[in-house]
Write a structure and sequence with these properties.
single chain; 162 residues; mainly beta; Thrombin, subunit H; three-stranded antiparallel sheet; 1 helix; 7% helix
Length: 162
């Protein structure tokens, strides 16, 4: 990726993208991650994903939806890693409608919440304005017998719990 690959809905947005890309490391599609911010294209969300593939035997072609996102990646030395939630593990990939938090050192269950649908997804966490959030898609899984739905649930951790 080069700054010329940037785009936006307006010329001003495209210019912001060009400036951002210009400040990132990129040495081709197999650029290894480093301590410097690196643009990864395609990123780990690229290629075929959830949508699956369709095969047309008459034309001998496969058709599928492709993600072509770039991502910014960076390694952090252990002693300077960003603060995280370093002692909790969140798990939702179970056969019931709960998301859970475990102590990473002991494996002890610290918290669980009942969701309106099955939690057969991977939770993610992020911080905004000093508050840590955990978000999970609750859509269920028919073959597992979990409740079906179409939800995205967010929980916040008490301030200071990082």
């Amino acid at each position: 990726m080069t700054p010329d690959d940037a785009w936006g809905l307006t010329p001003a947005e495209a210019e912001v993208g060009r400036k951002r890309i210009a400040g990132l490391r990129y040495e081709g599609p197999f650029t290894p991650v480093s301590l410097q911010e690196t643009i990864e294209a395609p990123s780990n969300t690229g290629g075929f994903n959830w949508g699956g593939l369709s095969y047309d035997p008459a034309r001998d072609i496969i058709v599928g939806a492709v993600n072509r996102f770039a991502a910014i990646v960076k390694l952090y030395p252990r002693d300077s890693a960003p603060s995280s939630v370093g002692g909790l593990v969140f798990i939702g990939a179970t056969r019931d409608n709960h998301v859970r938090a475990f102590d990473i050192e002991t494996g002890r269950l610290l918290w669980k919440a009942l969701l309106p649908a099955g939690a057969q997804a991977t939770p993610m966490t992020y911080e905004s304005s000093g508050t840590q959030y955990v978000v999970i898609s609750a859509g269920g899984h028919g073959k597992l017998g979990a409740t079906l739905g179409d939800y995205v649930m967010a929980f916040s951790l008490p301030r200071g719990r990082k």
